[in-house]
Amino acid sequence: MIRLLPAKKHIEMPWKNGLGVTREVSRFPEAGEYDWRISLATIRDSGPFSSFPGYLRSISVLEGEGMYLTIEAERSPLIPPFQALNFNGESSVSCEIVGGPLLDFNVIYREAAMQATVTWCRSAEWDYQGGLRVLFNAGSAVRVQIAGQDYRLDRYDSLLVDEPGTLDVNSGSPEARLACITLLNK
Q1: What residues contact 89, with CB distance under 8 A and at least 6 apart?
Q2: Cα separations (Å) of 160 from 52, 103, 157, 183?
Q3: For the chain, first and last CA: distance in Å?
Q4: Cβ atoms 41, 15 nearer than 8 A
């Protein structure tokens, strides 16, 4: 299965702690408790993160100058745009934003059921290693080819791929920013 997920179809929902809004890119399963979820969130103010017991998280800054996370009383180095930081969803976490509001990119997954990796790149040939691949475009439009099919990903569009084949991403732009997410069942 190959499925294009346009940004205009992201589903908006309140944060678990009520302090903001998340735009859901995709999740599995689509109803009830999920094994994994990919989302975007606007962080307007520094403050606490919601707790997600049983889940692991990866967070990256998409827009803004960056942020610091304090995880279990340990302050992280500055998290600049397009650099993933992983942490336990059950941890006590708060953020300090730098230079004003920011937009972040989140991958959250059930620790007992899944493994996930998030890697940022500008263009790629991404070979199938198993599991589900999600290509998220955080930059200008890119062309993606897999199995002889061409796809165009505009800013914040994603492509879900759960079949063998090489994803060939040609951005043609030095401003391209792509998250390559691999989700594997344990």
Answers
A1: 51, 52, 53, 54, 55, 56, 57, 108
A2: 24, 22, 10, 11
A3: 20
A4: yes
**Cβ-based burial of 161 (10 A; exposed 0-12, middle 13-18, buried ≥19):** buried
Average pLDDT, integer, range 60-89: 97
Model pLDDT, residue 162: 92
Please, which residues have CB within 8 angstroms of residue 68's CB and are 6 or more apart in sequence?
A: 75, 76, 77, 78, 79, 95, 96, 98
Q: Give me the residues paired with residue 137 across strands.
A: 178
pTM to 2 decimals?
0.94
The DSSP result for 24-78, as a single string, is EEEEESSSSS-SEEEEEEEE-S-EEPPP-TTEEEEEEEEESS-EEEEETTEEPPP
CA distance 63 to 160: 23
H helices within the chain, ranges in order?
none
The whole-angstrom separation of Cα 152 and Cα 142 is 6
Q: What is the dihedral of CA 120, 136, 84, 17, to 10 degrees?
A: 170
Among all chains, which residue has been given the structure tokens 């099919």? 149
Task: Please state whether 72 falls in left (phi above 0), alpha (psi between -120 and 50) or beta.
Answer: left
